[in-house]
Amino acid sequence: MRVSAQLYTVRQVGDLAAQLDLVRACGFTDIETVGFHDLTPKQVTNVVRQAGFTVRSAHFDWEEFETRLDDILRMLEALECPVAVMPWLSPKARPGTAEGWKAVSGRLAKWADALSADGVRLAYHNHDFDLVDLGQGSPLDMVLSHEAIGWQPDIGWLYSALSDPAALLSRYSDRIVSVHAKDVDPLAGQGDERWRNLGQGVVDWPLVLRVLADSPCADLFVEHDETADHAQTLQTGHDLLMRMRSVEVT
Question: Would you say the pTM of this structure is higher than 0.85?
Answer without folding.
Answer: yes
